[in-house]
Amino acid sequence: MTIYNSSILASDIPEQRLEEMYGDEDYYWYLRSPEFQETFLKPLADCVNNVEGSTLDVCCGEGQLAQFVEGKYCGFDGSRRAILKAQRRYPVSEYPDKWFIVRRLEETHSIGDFDFEKIVFGGVLHCLIAPESRVDFIRSFQDLYGATHFFVYDLERLDTSDLDNEFACVSSYVNEIPSLEHWQRIVTKRKILCYRYE
Ligand SMILES: C[S@@+](CC[C@H](N)C(=O)[O-])C[C@H]1O[C@@H](n2cnc3c(N)ncnc32)[C@H](O)[C@@H]1O
Q1: CATH of domain 9-196
Q2: 77, 137, 151: residue to mutate for ligand 1 pocket, most atoms within 8 A of CB
Q3: Who is most buried in 11, 28, 44, 144, counting CB within 10 A?
Q4: What angle do CA 88, 102, 137 make, to 5 degrees?
Q5: Domain layout of the chain by residue ranges
Q6: In contact, 177 and 36? CB cutoff 8 Å
Q7: 59 lines ligand 1 (CB under 6 A)
Q8: What pLDDT digit, counting tens, does each position of 104-149 carry?
């Protein structure tokens, strides 16, 4: 079984910083906005829903994608605050198919004895995983969870040539949020890719 350590990270954000981002600062406010959900999260979910099986959402934040994904879904994130928000929004009593756990990327080996056919890497690769570790990192989810497909939703400028050489790209497109003044600090053009593990 793969045991990660912080050498896989491009950016080792301390736990305390992750909590601040989901506190008053509300760093990821845009993920809740209708514009963002329509332009990126719904098309991503459509792509995910086209493939059979259950979904593991890597670094799910507050679990914004969960509302659009059908079937069994698990999200994990390193921020306790983000996961608490997700758990409050999706109580197990009402959503027995959706669950959320606190886990850092460098510890994904400990999620448990589950299968996930689909793995979502949303906003993870461009900033969090060291480029030289990306293929091994992504491959490890196939080994650990028997995944058949993975999905990348990320900045348009993310270079995916390493993934294209290693995996079969099933679909690829780029979406753009119509420019709005308050979106200035956010990169508005993003790609949504579906790959098959081979
Ligand atoms: C750019 S956001 C992505 C959120 C969401 N998946 C999306 O599609 O936009 C990055 C997320 O990674 C989480 N994160 C950052 N470093 C982490 C680490 N080492 N382990 C686990 N989660 C981490 C943050 O808490 C944040 O929710």
Answers
A1: 3.40.50.150
A2: 77
A3: 44
A4: 135
A5: 9-196
A6: yes
A7: yes
A8: 998 866 677 789 999 999 999 999 999 999 999 999 999 889 999 9
